[in-house]
Amino acid sequence: QLQLVESGGGLVQPGGSLRLSCAASGFTLKNYAIGWFRQAPGKEREGVSCITSSGDSTNYVDSVKGRFTISRDNAKNMVYLQMNSLKPEDTAIYYCARRFRLCFRNPSAFGSWGQGTQVTVSS
């Protein structure tokens, strides 16, 4: 069964850190780029970060550059999003999704969305 499952969300104080995980099953992860997206209440879903299938290219939305790091371990069928220096505006549900080989800016180009994991940054 093809699926992506996110985990690692939670409540954290501003300035804190979380590591999100995206577990892949039912397909060959090494053939797919994985994107992380987030959606806050009342806002559109936005792309946060993406890593190509080979892992040799990554990108980040400007608001998280220098704070978030995406990585992948194809042997473990896992993709991670390390989030440091978290801010209240990072509060959202975070999703991972896949796209064949290359990243793309538009979330509609991705499929097989996970159920999401809630990240709340608050004191």
Compute the separation of the termini in Å: 39 Å
Across the major sheet, the strand order is 2-10-9-4-5-6
Q: Main β-sheet, in a few words?
A: 6 strands, mixed
Q: What is the CA-based Rg, rounded? A: 13 Å
Low-confidence stretches: none
Describe the overall structure.
The protein has 123 residues and is mainly beta. The chain has no helices and ten strands.
What is this entry, summarized?
By secondary structure, the chain is an all-beta fold.
Secondary structure layout plus pairing:
Blueprint: E1 3-7, E2 10-12, E3 18-25, E4 32-39, E5 46-51, E6 58-60, E7 68-73, E8 78-83, E9 92-100, E10 117-121
Parallel strand pairs: 2-10
Antiparallel strand pairs: 1-3, 3-8, 4-5, 4-9, 5-6, 7-8, 9-10
Key descriptive features of the protein:
mainly beta; six-stranded mixed beta sheet; 10 strands
